[in-house]
User: Fold this.
Amino acid sequence: MFKVVDSQIGLGDVLPQVEEEYGGAIVTFSGTVRRLSRGRRIDYIEYEGYREMAEAKLRQIGEEIRQKWGETKTAIVHRLGHLQVGEVAVVIAVSAPHRREAFEACRYAIERLKEILPIWKKEVGEDGSTWVGMGP
Amino acid sequence: MVLKVRLFAAFRELAGRGEVEVDLPDGGEVEQLLQRLFLLCPQLQPYHRAMAVAVNQRVESWQYQLRAGDEVALLPPVSGGRSAHV
Assistant:
């Protein structure tokens, strides 16, 4: 299950999606908005995305994981919009027959997502706002 | 043909709009589209080499030939680093 949504998310959105008879391990990841970013104090983040393409890219990541680690199940949900510090921006769950594949694949999912997902974040803090990735 | 180009995030704010219509001959290349777009939105030109262009939700090269009805989007660099959205 791969989705981009506008409302609050949590591990409960992805965990049941990957539970299955042949999985011996489930690893989850939850990405949250942090207070400090590169030395700046953050008030909130605006996430904006190219929704249809982002969902296609999430499906692609699930496919890549199956190619690399075989029989796995992956679920990823990313949230868009206005997120306060501490709120959850992305949740991932991967199940695999054994823990090693599950850990590796979950790590891969978040790193890959950071590289290819067409979702951008604007950090808003006391000293103004910055689109991350656009340079200083 | 007239193509709608979608702009996101920093590019949307720089251009002051989320969509721009660009007139281009059928079969025109992505690079040609960008040059015409920069005439309409010169604020985007400095980011020429940092952007990726998606056509029908796939990132394509500067030489990709566009057709009527194609869905084009300019993608700013993502937070994770590389600008190539492969």
